[in-house]
Amino acid sequence: MFLSASPVPQTGVSGVRHSTFGSLRLGRSSHSIASGLLCFWDSLNFKKDREFMGITILFLDENIP
């Protein structure tokens, strides 16, 4: 499965064109997709009446050369 997207004009890195996930379409393309993912998890201690213990944050990012 291949995805293609219509570029969205933005300022930033020259030569890099940005697109939104909503503009992705199925089909052949020579472009690649780079994305970031940010997730939050909260931790509860069920042995101590569901006491809040903390938040874990995970951020994954693709570096565009």
TrEMBL record:
This is Uncharacterized protein. It comes from Brassica oleracea var. oleracea.
